[in-house]
């Protein structure tokens, strides 16, 4: 048996660290999913999860990974050959577009540079051109986990409204939900897709669809074939707190505690904690003299920071060194960014001291791996975490 002393530091942008009370809840003995006790749990989590998406409408919960949430969103609302407008923020937007094509839809994929958020003006221009309303849905990734950019969902809603375009708005919040501000109802989103393993601090295994009345109406006309993911069957039985098939009972035990945990801290405090961690991380990166994958800091993600390695330096060799030496797991580059970037996840269950430790681990790793950098980034980040941002700016 091999043993690594000390606590493992899991700092990929999901799955995230599961706090002990949530883990303990998932370890309870499983119960009968048709029992009265389960009905109470089902009603509680189905109501509670709405407060996280900020919606008064139903949220569907599937036993599946986040990708299934994309699939359910498309299948329930669209018909074969429908045009969907998507924007290439990075790997996850690319995968969603690829899925749309596989399902028999016609994705129109607006070109992005994998370093920027959704270009709202480009979406608006395309919608304005589409006088025949051939586009049936606009699908965007709120937080592009591959590149560390956050997009303006309310801005895209406003673009739809300004052009008077009736397309549905679908948003992937898999790596932003419960970690940065998100308002399904207020932002007029028709389908919001979520997953359990990031801001919700649960193990992987649940996918979510929050839906609008307009999305529910579209589901009545939609002709893509669907079975397990059919909203109608699920919504009918969810009214009583039950599910049409065997739900992930133990993850739902955990979900109840996760929702309580988030509200105990307060959603705004949760969002502020993530924003502070992200600011501290970016402060360290700038000090080291490394480059962010996100080109404009105003678009930087609150949950993940992707850092570009200097030319000729392997990001994966650096990550391997950090894992071996400090038991700190960082995220790798995805798709064309493989071995070119490393990603620091600051999402879910952490505090300021966790982030200070992670950034120390990264800095020690840079030194050990011989990556050219300016020492002192972790120290500069500590000052951001300690609330000295203004003083620090003044000193620069
Ligand atoms: N969308 C985003 C933004 C993600 O970060 C991920 C996973 O990291 C996915 C979709 C896919 O989710 P899953 O791997 O749970 O299927």
UniProtKB/TrEMBL annotation:
Aminotransferase class V domain ranges (all copies): 30-315
SUPFAM superfamilies the record matches: PLP-dependent transferases (SSF53383)
Family in the record: Belongs to the class-V pyridoxal-phosphate-dependent aminotransferase family.
UniProt keywords, alphabetically: Aminotransferase, Pyridoxal phosphate, Transferase
Protein name in UniProt: Serine--glyoxylate aminotransferase
Cofactor: pyridoxal 5'-phosphate
GO molecular function, one term: transaminase activity
Domain of life of the source: Bacteria
Keyword 4Fe-4S assigned: no
Gene name per UniProt: sgaA_2
Record-linked InterPro entries: Aminotrans_V_dom (IPR000192), PyrdxlP-dep_Trfase (IPR015424), PyrdxlP-dep_Trfase_major (IPR015421), PyrdxlP-dep_Trfase_small (IPR015422), SP_NH2Trfase/AEP_transaminase (IPR024169)
Keyword Magnesium included in the entry's annotation: no
One of the Pfam families matching this protein, by short name: Aminotran_5
